[in-house]
Amino acid sequence: MFDLKDRKILVTGASGAIGASIAQACHKQGAHVTISGRREDALQELASTMGKDRAYCFMRFV
Questions:
Q1: CA-wise closest residue to 1 among 19, 21, 28, 20
Q2: Which of 6, 30, 55, 58 counts the most CB atoms within 10 A of its CB?
Q3: Is the separation of the CB atoms in 29 and 4 below 8 Å?
Q4: Dihedral sign, Cα of residue 11, residue 20, residue 26, residue 7
Q5: 17-28 and 40-50 helices cross at what angle (nearest 10)?
Q6: pLDDT tens readout for residues 39-60
Q7: pTM metric for this prediction
């Protein structure tokens, strides 16, 4: 993969399997990852597994 160190990335649909995998892969490459999705519990769990130093949750309530 290419270097994503200190890049800022938004992953929508991160509460699902594909979005979560994309978010984790970008985070492992050094990116600051903002995750968004419909299930808050899944987003919080994902952020905690990535470490909250470069992982941020964004919830939009309609």
A1: 28
A2: 55
A3: yes
A4: positive
A5: 20
A6: 999 999 999 999 878 999 988 6
A7: 0.88
